[in-house]
Amino acid sequence: MDYSLAAVKMLCSQLRDAKPTPSQNATALGGVLFQRAWLQGVLVPISGGGDNSLVLDDGTGLVELGLSGDFAIRQWKSGMYVMVVGVYHIRTGDIPLLKVHKMVDLSVSPDREAMWYLEVMDAYRLFYEPLIQEFS
């Protein structure tokens, strides 16, 4: 894992445009190279998923969360608003998969969801938009 590549703040819908790179350790969104995605949203039930699978809904799309270690034994419940950082795995014909590295329950902060959209927009305009336009 190359920790010089920051976790990119994004919405679930943006993951659909991410493309694999020649390096198997990174993914590209336009000119933005990343290994880890930073998402926030509400946990929703998954039908047919295993015990270690949850789905995150941020209002723009869905992402399956692959849990392991300490995250798999914690009691995550539908309706929780969470922050998730993890490695994005491109899958064809299925919802995207994020292998979770960090997951935090933010449900006690009622304004977190509204602020998240503003944070993503701000990061996009300041850092990502110029790179994405350059490669479009």
From TrEMBL:
UniProt superkingdom: Eukaryota
Name the UniProt record assigns to this protein: RecQ-mediated genome instability protein 2
GO biological process: DNA repair; maintenance of rDNA; negative regulation of double-strand break repair via homologous recombination; regulation of sister chromatid segregation
GO cellular component: a single term: cytosol
Classification via InterPro entries: NA-bd_OB-fold, RMI2
